[in-house]
Design a protein that fits this description.
alpha+beta, 7-stranded antiparallel beta sheet, 6 helices, 23% strand, globular
Length: 243
Amino acid sequence: MNMQKIWAFTLAEVLITLGIIGIVAAMTIPSLMTKYRKSIVETRLKDSYSIFANAIRLAESEYGTGFEPTEGISGTGWNRRNAKAVFDNYFRLFMKINYEYSDNACKELSKAYGGKSNSQMYSDNNGACYNLMNGTSFLFFTGRVNSSSPFMMAVQLRLEPTKKRQIDGIDVFEFNIVNNAEKGLELLPGTVSAGVNLSNENLAKYCNSTSARVKVNNIDYSRSAFCLELIKRNGWKIPQIIL
């Protein structure tokens, strides 16, 4: 009678193999998650910028280069009603909006933290909130100092709106819509719109700050203004110096 050999692993061998798999996973998964997170930021930031830049161009073709968004606006300062009126009347037609946030949901979305760690939460709840088809949410702001001053507009992106802890310069990025006398409306990071020209090294230093706001030339800026400008300069890729 032929006896056939049966090959099998011992319990010790199985446990050793599982242990090796666990060690390898512990070493590689964080790296994969970092790359995935980096990819989301780069893709959504570039895509969302393009969406708004295109909407601005189309709006100017409809209402004129450097138009003033006065329809439906009343009073001064920043408030959600005026922000909604400007976005809905001038820009919404030229963008694909997934949905609009209710007032309460918009207040929750507006909460963010100023630094990478140990920073206090702040809230910019004077804007109107929407969600784009690419998964990015944003707050649209508009206001003016007085009845004769030009309107100021800004867009604050929330790249992963479902995250509970939104951190400025990591999850939150803000553009200003600036009316340039020669070029018309432009979409610019805060430091650029204010005329501040910094080296990549200084942009990285301020981007990596743990402070809620960074003061340059006696003006307070959000961390995201520096992060955003540096990423934009780098072809919408996060440079190693701010990782």
